[in-house]
Amino acid sequence: MAVMGSSLGGFYATWLAARRGCKAVLLNPAIDPARDLAKYIGEQTAWHDPSERFHFEPEFVDELRALEVGPMPHPERVWALIAKGDEVLDWREMTARYPGSHQVVMEGGDHAISNFETYLPQVLEFIDLQPAP
Predict the structure, then answer these.
(1) What is the DSSP letter of 129?
(2) Which of helix, strand or coil describes residue 85?
(3) C-alpha torsion sign, points 120, 112, 72, 20
(4) How far apart (Å, rounded) are the C-alpha atoms in residues 14 and 38?
């Protein structure tokens, strides 16, 4: 079993990998979403459709805090792809969060990791999958 997540999904993948002891591939993972999202409590607009509105509850921040994990019990089972050019998250926090884990820190890049296909062979190798011929 392996999990993979990007941004907030990377935070969730970290929690699951710590609980299950499985491998995790993290793509620009959120490090402290409770801290970062607390300022958005209240009514918000959806990023993909500004006419769509939703309410972000304080309880959601509490739920994120409850999922925080300390040091990874098996850092060698984590592979992180971190872009120094991430416009949302600080690459220094990401690298500091996963000591002892394999990290690919790319110059430039962006939060979406627009060139992800470049790294796909490394991801597949890390999770013991081979690309289709």
Answers:
(1) -
(2) coil
(3) negative
(4) 20
How high is the pLDDT of residue 133? 62
Domains of the chain with CATH codes: 1-31+68-133 (3.40.50.1820), 33-67 (no CATH)
Is 47 a residue whose pLDDT tops 90?
no
CA dihedral sign, ordered 35, 112, 127, 92? negative
Angle at 119 (CA atoms; ends 68, 82), nearest 5 degrees: 40
Asked if 83 contacts 113 with a C-beta cutoff of 8 angstroms, the reply is: yes
In the chain, the amino acid numbered 42 is G
For the whole model, what pTM was predicted?
Answer: 0.92
Query: How many residues would you count in the chain?
Result: 133
- Residues 9-19 pLDDT 10s: 999 999 999 99
| DSSP state letter for 21 | -
Tell me the DSSP string of 36-66. HHGGG-EEEEETTEEEEEEEE-HHHHHHHHH
Which two three-digit tokens encode residue 3? 């999990």
Contact assessment for residue 22 and residue 3, using Cβ atoms and an 8 Å cutoff: yes
